[in-house]
Amino acid sequence: MKPRSFNTIEIDSTRGVVRKSSTNVQKLRDEILFYLNAPENIKRIMPVLYEYSKDFSWYEMEYLDWANLTELANSGELSSEDWARIFFSIHETYHSFNETSTETDFSYLYKVFVSKALQRAQGIENKELRNIFFNGVILNGVARKSLANLLVSQMGVLFKVTKKVSVLHGDFCFSNIMISKDLSKIKLIDPRGGFEEPSIYGPQAYDIAKLAQSCYSWYDKIVEDNYDLQRSDNGYGLSVLGEDWTIDARIAFDPMLETLGLTEYNAKILAGLMLAGTPPLHLDDPDRAVALALNAVLLLSS
Fold first, then answer.
1. CB-neighbour burial class of residue 140 (10 A; exposed 0-12, middle 13-18, buried 19+)
2. How far is CA 222 from each of CA 90, 177, 219, 253, rounded to the nearest angstrom?
3. What is the pLDDT of residues 1-24, one digit of tens each?
4. Which sign, positive or negative, has the C-alpha torsion 44, 47, 51, 54?
5. pTM of the predicted protein model
6. 102-103, strands of its sheet edge to edge
7. Residues 6+ positions from 33 with CB-CB distance below 8 Å
8. What is the CA radius of gyration of the chain?
9. CA 187 – CA 206 distance, rounded (Å)
10. Buried-state track 57-91, b at ≥16 Cβ within 10 A, e below 16
């Protein structure tokens, strides 16, 4: 998995240490504070934090010679049984975050899922991306509504998800799920925590949406550049390269959805809401940003 442009990762396998530094000090600060303030049961499912700088510009932690789930999925080597085994561990890990909780309401979820995405879109200067967000496109031969329109029209799913607030990883996607070589254990990396400053708490639905984003969209294909984006006078064509493992991932995710009271359709729409907020974070690669926006259109057009 490639580090984001503002991050630097250095691995010292002799010492068993990974050092992460960043020009985005605020984000790194949030990660460090999460590691420091998380309950003991959460710390046990994350690498050990060893040391960090006083200005929060870097930290060192336990190095795990494990692959992340994005890498394993894109390798095409996971069987349906492997997926089921991995998701059994993911389910247990997710519930470790939810041992104690309070309640929030629709307005808070709207702020986190919809309002934030629209605010990010308003600041986009890329004309192509703005067109997808505000004017609509022809995608894979079908005329689609604008992403902003779809966000608003599909936000009703937020009435159907849990309103509980608990310890929140905040970026519970496949790239942050590390898997042991025998597929029996998982650990989580790169927590972002909640949305209040600083906090380890947030809506449980956010972590669900992050998982759904990896299962129901091509997010993990796109961020690893395993996609094909075509532009023509007839609009866009978007497809992925290599094996589309999302079918096996969805089947493995189903038992977890049942315990959460979510249908596959609602999980897909929740994933679309989540994905709609990500393109502005990938403007260092305009094609990738466009592909992510188009993928969100596909999900929310379901």
1. middle
2. 22, 17, 5, 20
3. 455 555 799 999 999 999 999 888
4. negative
5. 0.92
6. 102-103, 164-167, 201-203
7. 193, 198, 200
8. 19
9. 19
10. ebbbbebbebbbbbbbbbeeebeeebbebbbebbb
